[in-house]
Amino acid sequence: MPSPQFFDPPQKSPMDPVQNLADNGTMDKVNGGPKSSKTENLLNKIVASAQDPKGVVSTVVQPVKMLLESSGAMKAIEAGLNSFMEDIPWLMKGLDEVARIHPVVTVAVLAFKAVYNMELTRRENDKRIRALYIEMKDMMAVLIQLRDVKDTNDVGPDGKTIEARLQALIKQTAEDIKDCANACDTYAKKRLLVKVLKGYSWEAKLVAFVGTFTKRRTDFEQALAIHTARAVEAIHGDVHIIQASVDAVNAKLELFTRLFETFVPKELTTMKEKVKEKGDITIVLSSEAALRELNDFENSLDIQHKNDRSKKRSDFTMKDLREELRYDFETSVRKNLETFAGKFELYQRQLKDELTKTINDANNRILTAVKEGPHDKIRNSELKLIWKEMNWRRNVKARLFVMTLRDHFREKVQEIKLIAASDAESSREQSRTDDWALEYISVTWLQPIMEAFDDDGSGYITITEVNQFTESLPTELGWSSQHWIAYWAVGFQLAATKYKEKIEHILALMYGLRSRLLPENHYWADYYLRKVWSSVVEITAGLQTPDLPDHLEAKFEPYISHEEERIRKNLQDIRFDIDALDTVYVVAGPGRIEKHLLALIYLLLDRDLKLFRIAQTKILHEDELWDSADSLLWVTDSAVIRVHDLADLYEQQKMDVDAQLKTVACGLFSNLQDLSEIWSTTNTNTQHFPYTVSNEELDANGPDAELETLLNYPLPTEYPLSTFVYETKDEVTASPDSSQPQAPMFGQWSGYVYTQDEFPEFLVWSWIFEAVPDDENAFQASGVDYDADPYTLKGHYSQAENGVIEAEFIITYESGYATEYYKGHLDEAGSFTGFKGVDENVSEDNHSSLFIFRRISPEIMVHRPSPMELASNKYRALWKFALEAVVTQTRRRLWSWSFFRERRDLRKRYIELNIRLWEFGPPLDEEERAAFLASRRALIPYDALFYLSIRKHMLSIIPKHFDFECDGCKQPMGGGRLICLDCRSDAPQLWQTVDFCADPRCYSASVTQEQRYYLEKPHVPTHDLVKIRTFVQWGDLPALDQTARAALQHCRQRMVASVETPSEEPKDAESSAGSEDVSGPKSQSVHSEGATEAPATDDVFRCFACHTVTELPCWYCTQCTDCVICDSCEAKSLLPCVTCSEPFVQPSWYYGSNPKDNFMCNVCSVKGLDPPAEMQKDCLHTYLHPLVRCKERIDDPVEPPEPTTEDRLILLESCVRSIQESLGDKFGSMETALCSLQQTMSALMAKLESRSNGHAV
């Protein structure tokens, strides 16, 4: 379709559309410009006054500086920010008129409108970004002055036309708008922690756009002044004018810098305060522990903003944080542009079509200016007649409108039928009346028809909504109004049901393909299904299935296909990568998101299914499926946001929210308001995932030719393990005393970056500094870092007055990682020591780390003591250094077994601790932390590169249990995961589980109800556990529960039987097992049902791998018959060789899924032995099978029941009786004591009386 032509000069007419705007008052509002606060007016004066230098500094710059010191300044600015969206509509109308008169400005107008629409759909309310858009808006508002220049060929005093004068400037402005929007979009996607740690550079770059827009605004005003009523001489300034303008812009930049410091979002403020607790940014960037704690803190903040279910997007890992911190502003913006450009162009294309309509409407406005009545604004003639006959004004109740439509179309058909018999032309007209549609324009289908017209859900239908409804029908379909209304009555539900079936079928195929994927693709395929499946099911499960005739689908198929193709084209334009909420809306098109929701989900899933098929034979880039999942999550997020908006609307209208959501959009949103029902453990997943697929469908593959069009990232071409480093190793040695006075920095240097608390902070660096031509004091080097990122090193040295050699150098990375700065000197020992920083001002007071380099090979440097060790005990440290270096070099030359054993142990230990530190697993204790630093320090560059490639390959294969953390160590889980079966029964939601990693210290822990609020009772170590080594989707949990409980019950029954019936096997079971004949497979056999059956003699259970007699506790396979594994073999992942029966370590995580896996040990494979002919690989046990922890059952202590009322009364009566008896005894004792006291007192009185009588005598 050719692009719309609207660049011709407008034709003169008696009533010009611009005059039209003036007559109805619109142009007055445009002339007045958008509403501005006092602060905005002051900011606007800064550049406007630049043309009049007299008084600029005193009247503009100084007030701005005073504004900075004013306590109410930011409140005034905030008021302007809040009114930003209110002012935009008037500006848009004016820009549309200007674009109609002067097509040269169209490119800038379209760019600005695209950015405005993006901001309109953005949910983040960052006032700092909006402040930039205000500057952009003020710049564009200047173009409104072009209304005064009616002639596009108007020539200025210098002989240039207005079009020629503006063409380059407009084009550059459009690029500036796009660059600013891309930078803001990139910044919005950054993590909170990254925004804090790198905010100083990002905010400065964003504020710089203020100066750009201010300059463009000045350029516009100067260009327009020539062609408007302003004095031409105003643009001819001198140096004072230019200086005043610069001062004004600088003052404005100062104000916006202050604004960026003031209007900080709440979440960002919280993160800033947390960072401040750890020290300044430099300290945080150099502290691994601080970064990890802050990373975990941000993940916890994200959880707090979600509902009870797990987060849709996964937690950020330390690896993600480190990688994002290394990218600078330019690199991040450049990478984001790859996605942003497609979205921006899509916006512009749609806006261009809208602008064409606007221009056509403006040209036709003269025809409607003399007409009266609101109905004249309705463009559909039939609906216009209805509106006029009913004498409706600007809106009408939705129910009344629909019922009136029904009556109108019925009357129309009846009239045609009355004259059809006598008039052949009328008969043909009757055939085109679509009277079949009248059945569906009725009370039965009232709700969907009202939704089709009432886009905002207010209950009233406006003239604008009527026009939007009728114009959304593609004209090429040739449908009648009743046909179009019937589609929204029943056709939409038919289409939604069709898409639901397609979506479920695609998800079933994806589930079926999981076991066929290459091991390297499992990780991201699991991630994709975990995130996408639950989010999609929450939508599709609520859809109400219609009971309608089959022939109706054919009547609506043209529109369904048309919309599907339109959305597919939009997705192709952005390469199926939806990176934000605004992208969802521009791809789906105008109107309610539910109109296109399922079609959009289906098209994304259909493309992703092809990726799953490719993943069977090709290793995909790690971002391929991540982006695919993220695209679908943005789509489902749009549905959730729509539900929240509807819920707010229904609450305002005093309506039952849940009841309304069950009817709107045919029930699509019924589950999104409250997820507790759909994921309830009583509402098992079988009803949401009942479909199966055949092997024939799974075997179907698309052509390889689709690879280029499907993939957004290149397929990895390198071998996953970096063995090339040993092939290209260049032995370079340099003795410690080989420095040359004339070139003190040239040669090989090896050393470490470190901090006072951590040595080393990273792996060893080794460079060969070479001379730079034409600069005798410069040196350079290049290479590839440990992330395979090429870098360039450039430095310079000089000799200070005291004779000390001082040097500094920078490292820049090809990928755009942040530049590193080093500055130091040569000390007396010949070491190059100094400071490393993140900016060029690195010094003793401004650095992130320290460094030390020696002119020795890395093989020697790894043994050299650290500066802290030398300071503690120099001579002991140097003696140890000499011994270790000599012994290691000797072992290396001799190729001794001890040398290779040490390398093997170092490799395993480093990779294990590295994964636990950066990815998942229990945190390192102090001893393990010291062991990790020692292993990091011991690695030479070649070994480190190779080991890191092994680590990367392992992480691409080992499954990670997304959104779950170990309840023992509180860390993310990877590899094995244990789920409590007893606590699964208590949890009300399907996803609420008690989980542990494979560390025995963790799954032996207790979990309280404070830790897991949904538990009815605490978890204790005696509970039953099931262990899985693959990621389990929510849909698999009910089946896993069932099979695990059945296997556990069977195992316990067999174990009890084996105890009651003692075996007659020899006492030395191990030696007897070891003396068996190894001519055939003794370790694995296949029972009648096809699963592995472990060998058992009588009723004695033997370990599947090592054949020893196994007792409780042990592990029991849920998919094999009587397959018991002892703790030792399970911890080592041992399998028995099918040829010699000797146990061997499972070679890879997904061993058994590859047809080439032969289940033979290395010895038998080297001998060239063939596996048994009767062996069925699919039936053999692997560690991908779930295992249950079989141990003696210990039930939780039973709490006594609550006493009844009668029991309470009896207890009370007993207590009262006991109290009475006790009081009676006490009263008796008191009476006896009183009697005794009375007798004593009587005796004393008698004695006193006798004594007094004696004295008297």
From TrEMBL:
Listed PROSITE patterns: EF_HAND_1, EF_HAND_2
Species of the source: Somion occarium
- Which residues belong to any copy of the EF-hand domain? 449-476
Chain residue ranges for the region called Disordered = 1-37, 1057-1093
Could you tell me the superkingdom of the organism this chain comes from? Answer: Eukaryota
InterPro entries for this protein: EF_Hand_1_Ca_BS, EF_hand_dom
Its recorded name reads EF-hand domain-containing protein
